[in-house]
Specification:
Helix content: 10-25%
Number of helices: 10
CATH superfamily of the largest domain: Transferase(Phosphotransferase) domain 1
Largest sheet: 6 strands, antiparallel
Structural class: mainly beta
CATH topology of the largest domain: Transferase(Phosphotransferase), domain 1
Distance between the termini: 71 Å
């Protein structure tokens, strides 16, 4: 084949060979690049089965596009020779890397996370690999993992032979073969097969997860999980045995610490014999691996979902004390300066308010010269963008032509343009002149736009998070060219409120990961076209229990300023940082502002001024009578109690006498209050985050989800807070909003991907677990929230981080296992007693939706008052309790004094 041409590909040399093909280095004469060409050998060209598998691999890989999957460029036939053209890789197979023994935990996690992401992308396209093993995993010279060889992908029916067939043992230096493939009555590789493969049963994505577990076990231990003396013995071990525990194995040659317990549990969960007990998706697996990969993590991740936004006043008493201390510090000048060198002294501050109106001003952005600022506020009946001179009192409306919401304004580096988010004109990110002239649409999605220092690009997040606990959906980062509108995905992990470093090197953001709110950065530049588009690697800035959010770079790139509650109240902090690498050069230090809550920081070009907003909030719970037949409220709503606590997801007891609710803060607790607003009782009081409590149909227990065990599980407690019991201790999924069945003998809960059914008797000594079917391909994730009284249907809502039109309510029918879309917006649907109509929240109002007529209307309007943030309805449908958020806040200016 050397010097031969296959179409435009000139063969340069042989790279290796395997059972399913020979691999050559070739030159693409059209594009002037080197590629790898895999050729079906002549000996197999007449074998229909081999030819089918070869073509199956080409089609399977061609349907995928992911940085952790080998990219296929072409497929064809030349002079009777079948060939596939792929990217050319430099590096080694994972099998070759394992020849030197077990890997350090950190490196194994890195490789495993990349593998899981690649498998998730394949599974999303309906492609199951069925032969995941170290030989089919390639690590490039720059550390990027590539999954190879989809020749046994799911669309290929299982083959059968009379005896095991050993493929060529030669390892391919470029990793494009199937070295060591063993095939008997099933397809796959002995030692990495799942139990269902060994039994020649039908397989799905969970089979790949078992094989993945075998590979990860080998990376960590240096030995195969189930290897025995013969093929039959190995298969028997796969069916019946557990691999030796990591703590019983020596790790010769590995400089790494012992395998953490959380990682050991993750591996064993992948290796469950029953597919229903494994991870149900590679995305869930990748999510937990990402959590474990964080520098100080020792447990699994918490979900990326919160019930609603958090306000700093959840700790009002503490905040007042801290605010008082801050005021004393302010009067004393640079109170932290003593004992520091002048070059590293935390700056003191002088502050003054810039806005005074009785409204909530949001999203301030300071002009580069520090002389004016833009912000969003509802002064005239809708949220608009306003500009005001620093020291002036007459804000000017820049978006008065839009009668919908406009927010998140950001001055360009030159101060002559403003990027902002709007719901007018199709929504998305728009750019206008500094005085509101010539607005034009840049994207149809995105929040929190931030300019690159040269003004050529804008980075946006896909989830809106005006508060540090607004983690509704996984938030990606996209970079958009301001002139052309061209878009590129920068980061598909969780990232919100991005801010570009002053020299354009890195982008800082805050993320929800492992139940924490932390700061991280990623490289901003796109990779050269000649290099594979590997996902950027986040560099953590903070990684601890404190809530950190809203980072902004100092103009010289030497510091990151951010909001944090690490001293009690949500205030301003900074940390020294290397802009080039993103690595910190010290510990966070306070730059205390005289405010119990602050956020949305913006710094002037000379670094001397920081603009920010304050917030003061209370929640009020109201009660209103409701006529379930007419679908209307009766009389006026009455306030039953107010609190500085953040009241979320209330639920009324079956007898109507009590309301249970959760709070959100640095940790979340459950509270019980009488339905008349008296006798507030603390049900849980510990560092765990306890969320979404719901009474059982008989009122004897309250289900909720909590991370008290190290990961989110479904728990139950008696209404007095006693007998707290986990229903999901053996499940490795992150369990969210529990929903009781009408008979009280089952609970449905969603994860970030699937919905799960638990069936049990009490006490729950035997819990049966099944996974419900997913929505149709192309639909967003469905989060179940309420079980109809007639037991037939689940109501829930879609959670899409990318498109507003993919959000809204939906139903799942148990009888047909079918999903039905209802609306394009709305959350938290609750059934009325007729199992036909739903109450739900949408745009700060309470709505009623008829699932038969497919019509909806407002039941409780926002009007001129604050928005509704949560609600519940009595079992007979005759009383509604809802929560309004009463907030006020102003924009302030801090002048830094070094």
């Amino acid at each position: 084949m050397i010097a031969k041409s296959l179409g435009p590909y000139r063969i340069l040399g042989k790279l290796g060979e395997g059972g399913m093909g020979e691999v050559y280095r070739a030159r693409d004469t059209r594009l002037g690049r080197d590629v790898a060409v895999k050729v079906l050998p002549e000996a197999l060209a007449g074998d229909p089965g081999a030819l089918a598998r070869f073509e199956q691999e080409a089609r399977a890989v061609a349907s995928l596009s992911h940085p952790n999957i080998l990219a296929i460029h072409d497929f064809g036939t030349e002079d009777g020779v079948r060939f596939a053209v792929t990217e050319l890789l430099e590096g080694a197979t994972l099998r070759e890397k394992l020849e030197s023994g077990p890997m350090p935990v950190r490196k194994a996690l890195d490789y495993a996370l990349q593998m899981a992401r690649g498998l998730a992308a394949a599974h999303d396209r309906g492609v199951v690999h069925r032969d995941v093993k170290p030989d089919n995993v390639f690590v490039t010279s720059d550390g990027v993992v590539k999954i190879l060889d989809f020749g046994l992908a799911k669309a290929q029916a299982p083959a059968s032979t009379d005896s095991p067939t050993m493929m060529s043992p030669a390892r391919l230096r470029q990793g494009y073969g199937e070295a060591g493939t063993e095939m008997g009555t099933v397809l796959g590789t002995v030692g990495y097969m799942s139990p269902e493969q060994v039994r020649a049963q039908a397989v799905d994505r969970r089979s790949d997860i078992f094989s993945f577990g075998c590979v990860l076990y080998e990376m960590l231990s240096g030995r195969r999980a189930f290897v025995r003396g013969t093929t039959v013995e190995t298969m028997t071990a796969i069916l019946n045995d557990d691999p030796p525990a990591f703590e019983t194995l020596a790790r010769p040659g590995s400089p790494a610490a012992p395998v953490p317990a959380a990682l050991s549990r993750l591996v064993l969960h992948c290796l469950e014999k029953d597919p229903n007990e494994r991870f149900q998706s590679a995305r869930d697996l990748a999510f937990d691996l990402q959590s474990l990969a964080s520098p100080s993590s020792s447990e699994t991740a918490a979900p990326r979902v919160e019930t609603r936004r958090f306000r700093g006043t959840a700790w009002l008493a503490v905040s007042i004390l801290v605010a008082g201390a801050a005021a004393v510090a302010f009067l004393a000048g640079d109170w932290l300066g003593a004992g520091r060198s002048a070059a590293n002294r935390v700056p003191g501050t002088e502050v003054r308010p810039l806005t005074f109106q009785p409204a909530l001003e949001l999203d301030p952005s300071l002009s580069p010269d520090g002389q004016s600022f833009v912000f969003s506020a509802n002064y005239t009946g809708s949220e608009d963008i306003w500009v005001q001179r620093v020291g002036g009192q007459n804000p000017v409306n820049l978006t008065k032509e839009c009668d919908k919401r406009d927010d998140s304004p950001a001055f360009s580096p030159t101060g002559d343009r403003i990027a902002y988010r709007t719901e007018c004109g199709g929504g998305g990110i728009w750019v206008m002149g500094a005085t509101g002239e010539s607005p034009r649409r840049l994207t149809d999605f995105g929040y929190a736009p931030a300019w690159s220092p040269d003004g050529r690009e804008i980075v946006v997040a896909t989830d809106n998070r005006p508060q540090p606990y607004d983690a509704n959906f996984t938030s990606q980062l996209w970079v958009v060219n301001v002139e052309t509108g061209a878009k590129r995905l920068l980061f598909d992990g969780d990232a919100a409120n991005p801010n570009w470093s002053p020299h354009g090197l890195r982008i800082a953001y805050w993320r929800e990961l492992g139940g924490q709110r932390d700061i991280a950065t990623v490289a901003a530049a796109a990779p050269p076209p000649s290099q594979p588009a590997a996902p950027p690697v986040p560099v953590p800035v903070t990684d601890d229990a404190a809530t950190d959010w809203d980072p902004v770079w100092s103009p010289d790139g030497n510091y990151l300023y951010f909001g944090s509650d690490r001293a009690g109240s949500l205030n301003l902090w900074r940390v020294a940082i290397d802009e080039r690498t993103g690595k910190t050069r010290g510990q966070p230090e306070p730059v205390t502002l005289p405010a119990p809550w602050s956020g949305h920081y913006s710094i002037s070009r000379d670094g001397s001024r920081i603009i920010y907003r304050t917030l003061a909030s209370t929640d009020t719970v109201y009660r209103v009578s409701f006529d379930p037949e007419a679908g209307k409220t009766v009389g006026q709503a009455v306030s039953i109690f107010g609190t500085s606590l953040v009241v979320t997801t209330p639920d009324v007891s079956p007898d109507g006498r009590s309301i249970v609710f959760a709070t959100v803060g640095s940790h979340g607790d459950l509270f019980l209050v009488r339905s008349d607003g008296t006798s507030l009782t603390h049900l849980t009081d510990d560092p765990a985050r306890d969320r979404r409590p719901v009474f059982s149909p008989d009122g004897a227990r309250i289900a909720f989800y909590s991370n008290r065990s190290g990961k989110y599980e479904i728990w139950t407690t008696r209404p007095d807070g006693s007998e707290q019991v986990s229903l999901t201790p053996k499940l490795f999924v992150e369990a969210l909003y529990p929903n009781w069945s009408p008979n009280g003998r089952a609970i449905v809960f969603p994860t970030t991907v699937d919905n799960h059914l638990l069936e049990f008797t009490w006490p729950p000594t035997d819990v049966r677990h099944t996974v419900l079917p997913r929505p149709p391909k192309g639909w967003p994730a469905f989060w179940s929230y309420s079980w109809s009284p007639d037991s037939s249907t689940l109501a829930g809502y879609f959670a899409s981080a990318e498109r507003d039109e993919d959000r809204g309510l939906a139903l799942y029918a148990f009888a047909t296992q079918q999903y039905e879309r209802l609306t394009r917006s709305g959350i938290f649907p609750l059934w009325l007693p007729d199992s036909r109509r739903l109450l739900y929240l949408d745009r700060g109002a309470l709505w009623l939706f008829d699932t038969t007529t497919k019509t909806g209307r407002v039941v409780v309007e926002t009007g001129d008052g604050p928005p509704l943030t949560s609600f519940t309805v009595s079992r007979d449908g005759k009383v509604i309790y809802f929560v309004r958020e009463h907030s006020d806040g102003d924009i302030w200016l801090a002048t830094l004094k070094q």
